[in-house]
């Protein structure tokens, strides 16, 4: 009885928290819709939604700013959730979506595409696809290397991933050293990462994948809580550890692979947001996953808005802002609060 | 409906009234064609000519600001290969007419691009004329150097790592037209090793980098005493502006500069022509040019100073706090008119405060 009362109040608290976070997300999105190098004031937005579809303002708000906000949310939440899953899975606070070489695989695929000139024949759209193929190859490689007799060795998985990451980055440097200047440019564009994506279908599919990822991850929240106590304890608590590990690894990898192949490498979100959220809501994955998703999305939208406006009309790479702002905020709160990193 | 759209497109194509340039060379060429009144925006790197700096800025070459571009309502956006293709795609998707220009690999492609631009801005005739003139100049230069001995040239376009001009670059084209042999011909992407340069032993080394780095690089090369270029003191540091992405006119200027270096024997002999009168004229002209560039006015006349000849150099003018309208100049060059050094001072440049005050009063009076 006491237990269920406790649970009820917890659920209530969590619901309030999620609602507050979503309200913040909406406010930030709206704000981000209003600011940019051409000032469009808030009271103009509403008539724009209803009215004239051919005006310049309409096209700036709905064709330029809105896609970036949606993509920002999708990628921010996907990376954050991937970060939560991986940190929980490895019980290691330093793991992030890019640690396992998935981004390296995507980057290598895209570099090869650029250097071989494939995108010139098949169009710019082939870049994200080849990037995803690269990510997928790395995922499969790491996955099968780390499975011995049906058991997934978490430590080996981590080490293999880190090594793959080193190998791919060396290969990318090799490609950059021997490629022509025009190709170098393209590679650097991609590595800097940007939420600018012309293709609506890609944006929508990333959004779909990341929402699905959040939902699926939420189903495994209790298993992740159990895993935080250690694999053996989790087995005793009735968790099918092997299956859970495999599913979660693949899920986190796919989330990372999709985001990275569309937007390039946007650092920091996947590492810091989970820690940041954990400081406020604790280590319980039932709330951690959903809260991280919303906070991650909000954070990336905010950073992108800043990147667009800080030295307008010039635009900064969004990774610059995520790193600087994220790092400073994180260190500030770390010094204020005593927290446990990773797991419980 | 479709028909109207096509007709509209045609009209827009015919005479775009609002042009945005995404590359310095395109901006420069638009000014060359005197179509600058139609230019409504360019990048922060578009600095030549000076007026281009006053145009609306739409970002850097690599990161253009799409929102800004859209808000300027351009009829056409002229893009170069260094722009981000994703962003260009976005512009196209929004119904903006984006025209891509190539990164030219030789003079012919530079001309093709220039003609294309002439067509777009409705100045076909002017662009043709410019190209004919420059082509004629190039022809006459080629004829002049045809039968001269060809020096081996190493051209450095980047240090750390060492970069040279590969076969598919207009700089290689420049060297060939100027009657030189580009020893970096064989590289695919321009990456080169110093060892190879030493082995190939170039007669001339040309360094094209910005400012101080160029001088430092010159010192680096001077350590290798076995290279002919070092033995004969033939290492030159050139201003990178002409060799980044030239307009047809700048291409010819660059070619003339290189021919001067490759074939000093073909230089017009000016020694006899330079008497005191012409020296004064030339010096005043140089001083005026420099003064105009820095301060604006052209205050100098040939008779303001006397020309003197010492140490194999002509000298004209002096640093003079109370010079003409507060300006003074110091010009010197070799007796054949090469190796020009020009310095222009405004009265207050090098004086302390009390001196400055006194001069100010003088000037006001």
Structure, described:
The complex is a heterodimer of chains A (344) and B (365). Chain A contains 15 helices and 2 strands. In chain A, strands 1-2 form a two-stranded antiparallel ribbon. Helix content of chain A is 78%, strand content 1%. With 344 residues, chain A is an all-alpha fold. The model of chain A has no long low-confidence stretch (mean pLDDT 84). In chain A, a hairpin with a 2-residue loop joins strand 1 (147-148) and strand 2 (151-152). By secondary structure, chain B is of the alpha/beta class. Helices cover 42% and strands 16% of the residues of chain B. Chain B has 14 helices and 14 strands. In chain B, the strands form 3 sheets. Chain B has a 5-stranded parallel sheet, with helices on both faces. In chain B, strands 6, 7, 8, 9 and 10 form a 5-stranded mixed sheet that branches. In chain B, helix 5 (107-121) packs antiparallel against helix 6 (124-145) and helix 6 (124-145) packs parallel to helix 12 (248-262). Mean pLDDT of chain B is 80; it is low at 358-365. Chains A and B meet through helix 3 and helix 8 of A and helix 3 and helix 4 of B.
């Amino acid at each position: 009885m006491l237990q269920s009362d406790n649970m009820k109040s917890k659920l209530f608290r969590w619901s309030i928290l999620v609602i507050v976070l979503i309200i913040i997300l909406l406010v930030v999105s709206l704000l981000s819709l209003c600011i940019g190098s051409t000032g469009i004031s808030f009271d103009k937005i509403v008539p724009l939604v209803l009215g004239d579809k051919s005006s310049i303002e309409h096209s700036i708000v709905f064709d330029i700013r809105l896609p970036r906000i949606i993509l920002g949310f999708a990628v921010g939440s996907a990376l954050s959730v991937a970060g939560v899953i991986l940190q929980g899975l490895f019980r290691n606070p330093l793991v992030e979506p890019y640690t396992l070489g998935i981004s390296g695989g995507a980057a290598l695929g895209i570099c090869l595409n650029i250097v071989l000139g494939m995108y010139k024949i098949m169009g710019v759209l082939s870049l994200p696809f080849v990037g995803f193929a690269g990510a997928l190859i790395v995922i499969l490689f790491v996955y099968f290397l780390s499975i011995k007799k049906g058991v997934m060795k978490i430590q080996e998985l981590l080490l293999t991933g880190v090594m793959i990451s080193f190998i791919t980055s060396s290969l990318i440097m090799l490609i950059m050293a021997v490629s022509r200047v025009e190709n170098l440019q393209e590679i650097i564009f991609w590595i800097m990462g940007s939420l600018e994506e012309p293709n609506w279908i890609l944006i929508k599919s990333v959004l779909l994948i990341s929402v699905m990822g959040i939902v699926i991850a939420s189903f495994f929240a209790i298993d992740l809580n159990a895993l935080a106590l250690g694999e053996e304890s989790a087995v005793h608590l009735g968790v099918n550890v092997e299956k859970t590990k495999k599913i979660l690894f693949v899920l986190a990898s796919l989330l990372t692979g999709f985001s990275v192949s569309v937007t390039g490498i946007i650092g920091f979100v996947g590492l810091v947001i989970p820690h940041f959220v954990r400081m406020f809501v604790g280590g319980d994955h039932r709330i951690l996953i959903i809260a991280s998703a919303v906070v991650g999305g909000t954070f990336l939208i905010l950073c992108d808005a800043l990147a667009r406006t800080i030295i307008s009309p010039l635009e900064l790479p969004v990774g610059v802002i995520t790193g600087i702002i994220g790092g400073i905020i994180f260190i500030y709160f770390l010094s204020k609060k005593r927290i446990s990193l990773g797991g419980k | 409906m479709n028909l109207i759209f096509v007709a509209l497109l045609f009209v827009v194509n015919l005479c775009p009234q609002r042009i945005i340039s995404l590359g310095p060379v395109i901006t420069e060429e638009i000014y060359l064609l005197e179509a600058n009144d139609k230019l409504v925006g360019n990048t922060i790197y578009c600095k030549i000519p000076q007026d281009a700096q006053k145009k609306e800025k739409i970002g850097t070459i690599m990161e253009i600001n799409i929102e800004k571009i859209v808000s300027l309502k351009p009829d056409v956006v002229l893009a170069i290969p260094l722009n981000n293709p994703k962003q260009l795609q976005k512009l196209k998707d929004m119904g903006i007419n984006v025209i891509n220009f190539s990164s030219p690999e030789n003079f012919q492609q530079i001309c093709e691009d220039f003609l294309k631009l002439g067509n777009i801005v409705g100045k076909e005739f002017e662009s043709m004329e410019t190209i004919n003139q420059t082509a004629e100049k190039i022809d006459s230069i080629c004829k002049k150097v045809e039968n001269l001995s060809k020096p081996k040239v190493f051209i450095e376009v980047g240090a750390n790592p060492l970069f040279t001009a590969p076969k598919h670059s207009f700089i290689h084209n420049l060297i060939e037209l100027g009657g030189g042999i580009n020893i970096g011909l064989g590289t695919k992407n321009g990456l080169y090793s110093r060892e190879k340069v030493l082995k190939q032993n170039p007669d001339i080394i040309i360094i094209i980098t910005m400012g101080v780095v160029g001088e430092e690089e010159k010192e680096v090369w001077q350590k290798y005493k076995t290279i002919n270029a070092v033995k004969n003191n033939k290492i030159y540091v050139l201003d990178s502006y002409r060799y980044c992405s030239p307009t047809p006119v700048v291409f010819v200027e660059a070619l003339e500069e290189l021919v001067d270096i490759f074939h000093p024997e073909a230089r017009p002999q000016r020694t006899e022509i330079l008497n005191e009168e012409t020296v004064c004229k030339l010096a005043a002209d140089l001083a005026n040019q420099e003064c105009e560039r820095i301060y604006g006015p052209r205050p100098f006349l040939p008779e303001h100073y006397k020309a003197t000849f010492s140490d194999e150099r002509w000298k004209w003018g002096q640093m003079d706090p109370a010079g003409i309208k507060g300006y003074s100049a110091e010009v010197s060059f070799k007796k054949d008119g090469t190796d020009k050094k020009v310095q222009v001072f405004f009265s207050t440049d090098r004086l302390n405060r009390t001196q400055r005050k006194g001069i100010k009063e003088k000037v006001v009076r």
